[in-house]
Specification:
362 residues; mainly alpha; 2 domains; 13 helices; elongated; membrane; AI-2E-like; transmembrane; transmembrane helix
Length: 362
């Protein structure tokens, strides 16, 4: 009978290698999913947004779980996903059109050059810059520009994941509590941070951006700026960026009117932009801060820059969330370090029994 060979690894080495294998397999899975990771991240965001409605209808009123889930998925697709995708597609297609025909942009730039007496660009540079913008936006906006098949798969995975998150909610939340390496109070803090960020950067910021985009588009249309609807769409996306935001849209429009000799229209755009569009942002933030989540503008600004580069358009939410989670975990680390000496001191102060040396060796 053959002898059973002993394992060459110690128990600790087996434990470490198990962790290495788990981390390696997780990295391979994430690498394999690649660009489809945004589908699962988007499902998580929609889950946080729609969960209060789900809880009210299913847990409080006892409605059928599958029917409620189907209704919420339909609502998310028709009201949230499709309009946002349509705006993204409109933005990418219009910039692609401008990159192919730069005559309008060059006419404006030549007017500015004549007014200032300084030549600062050529048509080749403008075309190259616009083509780079199209490439950058195509990679980061979830639109049909990246391919119909890819778009369909991402949306399908997002809705499919969201369906199981709702229909198997108890198992999903139980798995999070079981496998995430955090204490109960830390989990509670992270959950509050997630809810606060999603509310502030999805619900709150989307509402503020929509109002600012409508005001910007109407202002440009009233003062006869070409393609006012398109620039209103651009203002919607720009409004997610704190401080800069919509001035990146109506500011150049005012300069254009001033360089064209339409002083009244240019001054009018500036007045409406500064007095109304910018102040409506501050007013809505004050009104909505206590209702849907209050995030510091610095966290939002740095998070947007970080998140868009990593996650694409979803980085508008995930970037600030990453920074918020980092701050929460730093607070947890500080609290644990502050409490640990007290725990050690309280244990070492206890008298040890004659046969008990565990307290002394702690």
């Amino acid at each position: 009978m053959a002898e059973i060979s002993e394992n060459i690894y110690t128990t600790r080495q087996q434990y470490v290698l198990l962790i290495v294998c788990l981390v390696g397999l997780a990295a391979l899975i994430l690498l394999g999913l690649g660009s489809y990771t945004t589908a699962f991240l988007g499902a998580g965001i929609l889950y946080v947004v729609l969960r209060p409605w789900f809880a009210a209808m299913v847990h409080q009123r006892g409605w059928n779980r599958q029917l409620v889930t189907a209704g919420l998925l339909t609502f998310a697709f028709v009201v949230i996903i499709m309009p946002f995708s349509a705006l993204s597609l409109m933005l990418v297609d219009r910039i692609r059109l401008y990159s192919q025909d730069t005559s309008q942009i060059m006419a404006v730039l030549h007017t500015i050059e004549r007014k200032t007496g300084y030549t600062f660009t050529t048509e080749q540079n403008v075309r190259s810059l616009l083509q780079q913008s199209v490439s950058w936006l195509s990679q980061r906006l979830p639109s049909l520009a990246s391919g119909v098949l890819h778009f369909t798969v991402v949306i399908g995975l997002m809705l499919f994941t969201l369906y199981f998150m709702f229909t198997q909610e108890e198992g999903f939340l139980r798995g999070l509590r079981r496998y995430l390496p955090f204490r109960h109070d830390t989990m509670h803090e992270l959950g509050d941070s997630l809810k606060n960020n999603v509310n502030a950067n999805v619900l709150g910021q989307a509402l503020i951006s929509l109002v600012q985009a409508i005001l910007t588009g109407l202002t440009l249309w009233i003062f006869k700026v070409p393609d006012a609807t398109f620039w209103g769409v651009v203002a919607f996306f720009m409004a997610f960026i704190p401080v800069l935001g919509t001035p990146l849209v109506w500011g150049p429009a005012a300069i254009l009117k001033l360089t064209q000799g339409h002083t009244g229209q240019g001054v009018g755009i500036l007045l409406v932009g500064v007095i109304l569009v910018m102040n409506i942002d501050n007013l809505l933030r004050i009104v909505l801060a206590k209702r849907i989540g209050d995030i510091h503008p610095l966290i939002t600004l740095a998070g947007v820059v970080l998140g868009v580069e990593i996650f694409g358009i979803l980085g508008l939410v995930l970037g600030p969330l990453l920074l918020s989670y980092f701050m929460v975990l730093m607070q947890v680390f500080e609290r644990e370090n502050r409490l640990r000496p007290l725990i050690i001191r309280s244990r070492t102060d206890e008298p040890a029994g004659p046969d008990d040396t565990s307290q002394l060796n702690f």
